[in-house]
């Protein structure tokens, strides 16, 4: 998995499971994966060592992966979107289309 794929995956997981992380882990992950800060920049901003930031990011990503492995929320979301897309392709009825749009907005 390249860095871009990893970043996309972590952002998906972070969207679903961020409330299960510590404030520090959440802040470091957002800085690293969403704000594109380097580990050095994060360590300077939070006045901690680079190693501490690296360890927290690694632990947080591991936790996110564990949550997804056990709960499968992201995988279920992707499957739901795939099914909705297939239904849209099969049926152009406006009532069904409106219901599917409503369903897409529900997480």
Question: What distinguishing features does this structure have?
Answer:
mainly alpha, 6 helices, elongated, Arc Repressor Mutant, subunit A, 2 domains, 80% helix, 107 residues
What does this structure look like?
It is a single chain. With 107 residues, the protein is an all-alpha fold. It folds into two domains: 3-71, Winged helix-like DNA-binding domain superfamily/Winged helix DNA-binding domain (Arc Repressor Mutant, subunit A, Orthogonal Bundle), CATH 1.10.10; 75-104. Helices cover 80% and strands 0% of the residues. The chain has helices at 3-17, 23-34, 39-46, 50-71, 73-90, 94-104. α1 (3-17) packs antiparallel against α2 (23-34), α1 (3-17) crosses α4 and α2 (23-34) packs across α4.
List the helices and strands and how they pair.
Blueprint: H1 3-17, H2 23-34, H3 39-46, H4 50-71, H5 73-90, H6 94-104
Helix pairs in contact: 1-2, 1-4, 2-4, 3-4, 5-6
CATH architecture verdict of the largest domain: Orthogonal Bundle
Helix-strand string? HHHHHH
Overall shape: elongated
Average pLDDT, to the nearest integer?
90
- What's the count of strands? 0
Gap between N and C termini, in Å?
A: 27 Å
CATH H-level superfamily title of the largest domain? Winged helix-like DNA-binding domain superfamily/Winged helix DNA-binding domain
Question: Helix coverage percent of residues?
Answer: over 70%
Number of helices: 6
**Overall structural domain count:** 2
Assembly type of the chains comes to single chain
Segments where pLDDT lies below 50 for 5+ residues? none
Note the main sheet. Answer: none
In CATH terms, what is the fold-level topology of the largest domain? Arc Repressor Mutant, subunit A
């Amino acid at each position: 998995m390249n860095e871009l794929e990893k970043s996309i995956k972590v952002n998906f997981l972070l969207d679903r499971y961020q409330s299960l992380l510590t404030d520090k882990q959440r802040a470091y992950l957002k800085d690293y994966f969403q704000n594109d800060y380097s580990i050095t920049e994060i360590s300077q901003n939070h006045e901690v060592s680079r190693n501490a930031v690296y360890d927290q990011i690694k632990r947080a990503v591991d936790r996110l992966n564990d949550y997804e492995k056990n709960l499968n929320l992201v995988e279920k979301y992707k499957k739901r979107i795939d099914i909705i897309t297939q239904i849209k392709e099969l049926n152009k009825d406006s009532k069904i289309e409106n219901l599917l749009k409503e369903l897409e907005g529900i997480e």
